Each structure stands twice: as C-alpha cells, then as structure tokens.
Amino acid sequence: MSALQNVLSGHGDTEASLEYRNPHQAVKITGFWIFMxxxxxxxxxxxxxxxxxxxxxxxxxxxxxxxxxxxxxxETFILLTSSFTGGLSTLAMRNRQQRQVMIxxxxxxxxxxxxxxxxxxxxxxxxxxxxxxxRSAFLSAFFTLVGTHGSHVSIGIIWMFLTLIxxxxxxxxxxxxxxxxxxxxxxxxxDVVWVFIFTIVYLSGVVM
Length: 208
Fold this sequence. Notes:
This protein is mostly helical. It is built from seven helices and no strands.
C-alpha cells in the first residue's frame, strides 16, 4: 500500500511525506489538483481564442513588431528559475529544514516579483505606442491571455508570502507543509502555462 493510501485509510505511515501524513490535509491536496484541472480549462480556452485571433491585427501592430526577444527570454529564464527554487523549498520542507525553506521561498517570491516587473514594463511599452486591447482582436487576445497568467502569478506571490509568514510563526507542521506543497504545485503549473505562452505566443509570433 502506498504512503498516500495509508494516510487516506487511516494507517499511520511514518514514511509518508509531511504534507500527506494527516488524512484531512491529503484530501485538501487532492481537491487542489481538481481546482488546477479547472484552471487548465480556462487557459485552454484562452489559448484557443488567441490562436484564432492572432492574425486579426486590423492593420495595427503585429506580434513580429511588438515582441522583444531579450525581454520575453529574460521573463522565461526568471520564471523557470523560480520554479526550481520553489522545488528546493519543498525539498527542504521534507527534510525539516525550516531556515532553508524560508530562504528558498523568499528567493522564489523575489524572482516572481522580477517577472511581474518585466511584464508590466512590456505592457506599458506596448500601450505607449498605441498597442492597446482596443486596437485589434489580436491585441485583445494577447493581453487577455498573458494578463490572466500575470494575475495568477501575482496571486501566487501573495500566497507564497502569506505561507512564508505562517511558517515563520508556526514552524513546519502538517498544515503548513500542506500549504507550502500546494502553493508550489500552483507555481509549477503557472510555469508550465508560461512554457506554452513562450512557445505559442512569443516564439511563433517572432517567427511568423
């Protein structure tokens, strides 16, 4: 019987990861997986809309003219690095290294803020030359897709900060371990979504 099965069936498996040792916490993690499935549907719809509308520029700026290769490459590097540091915070949690958890989680938050800063600069530069959502269907789809991802990242940053505070005050226990594990699941999901944005939106935009 697996560690998760032992937890859910009430068997006290001391080898189970800290976040899964309490059956109530394990159920909450399962519920979060279901939530992420619904978020996948949301982003799937936004990607489909973008693919349909990306050529509808109405004579306005195109992706080839707008997208800055160094800019979106830096965003990608920063966000993928933050996923790595987030994973290290989970690893430290499972090794009961609270100080390391706080260090890696803080670094993840800072990287997330850097990503948002670059994205805000990108949007501001587009708007400054008249490339607003109202200009064309392409820009509406672009700002909606990338902006929705950016809002999710912003929520993730706030969530990680609150988790960091709880770990500092209460230490590592089954509840705070579950919260850390879940917020990192969320963060990794956003990184996967960004890989699709990087490929479908930015790379294809500068090539086509």
